[in-house]
Every structure is written in C-alpha cells, then in structure tokens.
Write a structure and sequence with these properties.
This protein is mostly helical. It is built from one helix and no strands. The protein has one helix at about 1-25. The longest helix has 24 residues, at about 1-25. The radius of gyration is 12 Å and the shape is elongated.
Length: about 30
C-alpha cells in the first residue's frame, strides 16, 4: 500500500498536467 500511496500523488500530478494539456489542445478524446 505504501507504493500505491507514493504512486497516487505522482500519477495525479502527471494526469493533472496531461489533462490540462489535453484540454488546452481540445483533445478531450485522449483524456484516458
């Protein structure tokens, strides 16, 4: 579970950045 906790914030940060970039590019289809 320790790994998940560490992977959660990292994933959230990357996903958040990706989500922002995707929205900026208007690529709502790549919002996997």
């Amino acid at each position: 579970m320790k790994v998940q906790l560490d992977s959660t914030p990292k994933n959230s940060r990357t996903k958040r950045s990706k989500f922002t970039q995707e929205e900026k590019a208007g690529n709502s289809q790549t919002q996997d």
